[in-house]
């Protein structure tokens, strides 16, 4: 239950609407019970009075009308207000979750699959809507109704009023506790199964090509069906228990009505024929009062799912980012050296080996640096640290003479442009895919020029920059994606460029052309480029060779070529 506390505190953002919702729910319920009770009494009284007796039937019949109209109106407005209140709270919650997710560094978010994150953000937050609609509001309403009804009936007969009130109170405490306990365990399992099914289903759709090629579709389908069967099994259990809660309440309703009939016939309700009308009043009141208890059993059965969803959402919101941007300074590139790595050591979370081991590196402003090395040697990791996607475990990383932690995130992003190894293509137009490269509006002409330059002119043929890319649009080959990423770099004005294998997957001729473009664009900038190729390396000021998380060689092209039995020299000779 404690998992629900952070979400209950969100209620303060829609206090007025939530209270109004409960008041309206209360009004609707009072009208409903009042209608039944008054009708019961009125019909009985009219029948007893018979024809020819003086009996004022105007007030009761007008009240019956009034209560019937009041019930409909209150219910209508109540539905609008309670749902509006819930959506207000959920909107706050979604924004809160989103603002907590964004600063989580890749290191934290990597632990979750995208579909799982989406599921938490959408389905689990949706489940939390029943916290107010199905649990809090109906429970408070039921409690208030019991008190009001007992006080109301006690004006007629205190003993009977207390009997009905206490019986209802006992049911209101026993039924929710019982069904909360019954639903607690499998509610969490149901939520897990639902999430697992959705994650697996997305994977099943996304992996269709591989599954077909390897003839593994049947196997994957069976796995999916198994998870679905489990999910349905839990749903079936919930439905059974929900049915049981209704059956129990109907049974107790009948029992209470019989008991009330029994006691009321014995009670002192005045004399004469009108006593019979009072019997009808109490009986119908007991009968109608169950309307407020009916939804409560199923709602408390559902609480297990609400708690599980709350825990799943909290798991994300309570994560602390691995990198916190607390710096306040702006980065100015006028001091040398520009980048200094001093004994940097880094290890990815959940990994036992080091990704960077005691790395020392100095780069001056305007220098062109190439980083080479075997796969998995830590090249991309070094770039990740330079953009503060992660912080070093030990050692210092200085930018313009100050620790990288001193700078604001905005200042780092403005000054450093990073082409990652995997380029993300948005499901959007080519224009918008390029526009993200620069906070200032880039004019179409410049975009078209750069698109031609990186060899993607073909894309402009039919629809120009309006061509839709990504999902549902024109698919891009691996090489085309890299060149789209490169176009973004060329449209960006940042003075420091970090490029992670910009020419990977390109043929030699295109590679040479792209490298020339990069070097031309980086003429007055600082460039750090990770590469597996040896093309154009002579044009770089500094070459760094990494192996097994260490920087094993560094120097100019000619210096490294002259190093006897050096890694780089052997590489060049081999190729
Ligand atoms: P490549 O040339 O294949 O791109 P690389 O030199 O860029 O390789 P890195 O990506 O820096 O290598 O990886 C260095 C080591 O860190 C590898 O062993 C890799 O498995 C590990 N690694 C990389 N990213 C992560 C991550 N997000 N979480 C855990 N380990 C990681
Ligand atoms: Mg890499």
From TrEMBL:
Transmembrane segments: 16-35, 41-59, 131-153, 159-180, 241-264, 276-303
Superkingdom to which the source organism belongs: Bacteria
Coiled-coil region: none
InterPro entries: AAA+_ATPase, ABC1_TM_dom, ABC1_TM_sf, ABC_CydC/D, ABC_transporter-like_ATP-bd, ABC_transporter-like_CS, P-loop_NTPase, Type_1_exporter
Keyword Calcium: no
GO CC aspect terms: plasma membrane
Major localization class: membrane
Pfam families: ABC_membrane (PF00664), ABC_tran (PF00005)
Topology in membrane: Multi-pass membrane protein
Example GO molecular function: ABC-type oligopeptide transporter activity
Catalytic activity: L-cysteine(in) + ATP + H2O = L-cysteine(out) + ADP + phosphate + H(+); glutathione(in) + ATP + H2O = glutathione(out) + ADP + phosphate + H(+)
Entry keywords, A to Z: Amino-acid transport, ATP-binding, Cell inner membrane, Cell membrane, Membrane, Nucleotide-binding, Translocase, Transmembrane, Transmembrane helix, Transport
Single Gene Ontology BP annotation: cell redox homeostasis
Locations listed in the record: Cell inner membrane
Alphabetical list of PROSITE patterns matching this protein: ABC_TM1F, ABC_TRANSPORTER_1, ABC_TRANSPORTER_2
Domain ABC transmembrane type-1: 19-308
Family, as annotated: Belongs to the ABC transporter superfamily. Cysteine exporter (TC 3.A.1.129.1) family.
Record's subunit section: Forms a heterodimer with CydD.
Protein name: Glutathione/L-cysteine transport system ATP-binding/permease protein CydC
Organism: Conservatibacter flavescens
């Amino acid at each position: 239950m404690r998992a629900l506390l952070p979400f209950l505190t969100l209620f303060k953002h829609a206090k007025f609407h939530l209270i109004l919702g409960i008041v309206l729910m209360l009004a609707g319920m009072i009208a409903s019970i009042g209608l039944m009770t008054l009708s019961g009494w009125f019909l009985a009284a009219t029948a007893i009075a018979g024809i020819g007796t003086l009996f004022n039937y105007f007030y009761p019949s007008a009240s019956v009308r009034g209560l019937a109209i009041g019930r409909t109106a209150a219910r209508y407005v109540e539905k609008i207000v309670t749902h509006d209140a819930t959506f207000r709270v959920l909107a706050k919650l979604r924004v809160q979750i989103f603002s907590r997710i964004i600063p989580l560094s890749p290191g934290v978010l990597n632990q979750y699959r995208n579909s799982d994150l989406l599921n938490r953000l959408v389905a689990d937050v949706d489940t939390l809507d029943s916290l107010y609609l199905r649990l809090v509001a109906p429970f408070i309403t039921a409690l208030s109704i019991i008190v009001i009804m007992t006080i109301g009936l006690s004006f007629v007969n205190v003993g009977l009023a207390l009997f009905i009130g206490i019986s209802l109170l006992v049911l209101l405490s026993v039924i929710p506790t019982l069904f909360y306990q019954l639903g607690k365990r499998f509610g969490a399992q149901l939520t897990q199964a639902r999430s697992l099914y959705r994650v697996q289903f997305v994977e099943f759709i996304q992996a269709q090509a591989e599954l077909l090629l390897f003839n593994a579709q049947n196997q994957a389908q069976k796995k999916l069906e198994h998870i679905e069967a489990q999910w349905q099994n839990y749903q079936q259990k919930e439905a059974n228990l929900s049915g049981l809660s209704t059956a129990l309440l109907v049974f107790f309703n009948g029992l209470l009505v019989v008991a009330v009939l029994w006691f009321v016939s014995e009670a002192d309700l005045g004399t004469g024929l009108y006593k019979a009308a009072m019997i009808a009043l109490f009986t119908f009141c007991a009968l109608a009062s169950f309307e407020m208890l009916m939804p409560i059993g199923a709602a408390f059965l559902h609480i297990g799912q609400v708690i599980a969803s709350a825990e799943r959402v909290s798991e994300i919101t309570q994560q602390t980012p691995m990198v916190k941007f607390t710096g306040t300074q702006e980065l100015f590139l006028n001091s040398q050296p520009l980048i200094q790595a001093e004994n940097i050591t880094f290890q990815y979370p959940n990994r036992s080996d080091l990704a960077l081991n005691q790395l020392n590196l100095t780069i001056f402003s305007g220098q062109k640096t190439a980083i080479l090395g075997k796969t998995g040697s830590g090249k991309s990791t070094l770039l990740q640290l330079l953009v503060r996607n992660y912080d070093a475990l030990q050692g210092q990383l200085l930018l313009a003479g100050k620790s990288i932690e001193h700078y604001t995130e905005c200042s780092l992003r403005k000054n450093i442009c990073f082409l990652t190894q995997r380029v993300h293509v948005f499901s959007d137009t080519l224009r918008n895919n390029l526009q993200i490269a620069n906070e200032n509006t880039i004019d179409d002409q410049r975009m078209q020029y750069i698109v031609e330059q990186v060899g993607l002119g073909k894309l402009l043929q039919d629809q120009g920059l309006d061509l839709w890319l990504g999902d549902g649009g024109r698919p891009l080959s691996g090489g085309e994606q890299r060149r789209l990423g490169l176009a973004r770099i060329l449209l960006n004005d940042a003075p420091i460029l970090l490029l992670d294998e910009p020419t990977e997957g390109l043929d030699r001729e295109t590679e040479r052309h792209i490298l020339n473009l990069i070097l031309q664009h980086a003429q007055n900038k600082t460039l750090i480029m990770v590469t597996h190729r040896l093309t154009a390396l002579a044009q770089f000021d500094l070459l760094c060779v990494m192996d097994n998380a260490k920087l094993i060689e560094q120097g100019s092209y000619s210096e490294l070529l002259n190093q006897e039995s050096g890694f780089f020299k052997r590489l060049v000779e081999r190729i």
